[in-house]
Specification:
The structure holds two protein chains of two kinds.
Chain A (H helix, E strand, L loop, with lengths): L1 H29 L3 H29 L7 H33 L11 H8 L4
Chain B lengths: L2 H29 L3 H25 L7 H23 L5
The chains are: A mainly alpha, B mainly alpha.
Chain lengths: 125, 94
């Protein structure tokens, strides 16, 4: 009984993750510039990788046909999910800061950019 | 219907979604106008392939495949940091 509960909850989480992944993939193709695409990237990171990894861990705990090593699989999935939760936002913030400071990304549909104006006036370094 | 058949059916239904998203990310990698666009697309595709590997580990009943997932995540993080460092100061850091 507990195996069924674990497997069903895990499958729901994996399904949510797959849908988030598809939405992020569509968004990363249709959004107009780099800083908007970053939003789609974070949808694909937390919703599309963290959530299904937790779901994989639950499925592996509940599925007895995987043998003894299913506990290793569940532990490795949880460790990978927690590493991802810490490291992926750090990476996307670093790449966004670098792209804004070095003007590597073209911001084409732009209303106003106060940070860039301040940097040109020399208010901040 | 036992647990094994149900899980196999579910994974068979979920695999095409991952493949379609991988193809969509590949389009952005190939036509991305600037370097940061390609880098975030490579990030997203590595996280996606990591989850796909974890799903395949259940599908093929071989739990040892899961150890590749951690390596893929750390590799994507290292790529982020290196490219950010290069864009800011035009050197890789020695």
């Amino acid at each position: 009984m507990i195996n069924w509960v674990l497997v069903i909850i895990g499958e729901i989480l994996v399904a949510v993750g797959a849908i988030c992944d598809l939405i992020a993939a569509i968004g990363i193709n249709r959004f107009p510039n780099f800083f908007v695409r970053l939003h789609a990237l974070t949808v694909g990171t937390i919703g599309g990788a963290f959530v299904p990894l937790i779901g994989i861990a639950l499925i592996a705990l509940g599925a007895e046909f995987l043998g003894v090593y299913r506990f290793f699989m569940a532990g490795a999935s949880v460790i990978a999910a927690i590493l991802l939760l810490f490291l992926a936002p750090v990476g996307s913030h670093a790449i966004a800061r670098a792209a804004h400071r070095s003007k590597a990304a073209v911001v084409h549909p732009k209303i106003v950019d106060r940070l860039e104006e301040d940097r040109e006036k020399g208010v901040i370094e | 219907m036992g647990i094994e058949e149900q899980v196999m059916l579910f994974i068979t239904a979920i695999i095409p979604i991952f493949i379609v998203s991988i193809i969509l990310y590949l389009i952005r990698i190939l036509k991305g106008p600037t370097i940061p666009d390609m880098v975030i697309a490579v990030d997203a595709i590595s996280y996606d392939i990591a989850v796909f590997l974890a799903v395949l580990a259940i599908y093929f009943k071989s739990p040892i495949l899961i150890s590749c997932v951690i390596v893929l995540m750390l590799w994507a993080y290292a790529l982020d940091i290196y490219v950010a460092k290069y864009l800011e100061s035009k050197e890789m850091g020695e």
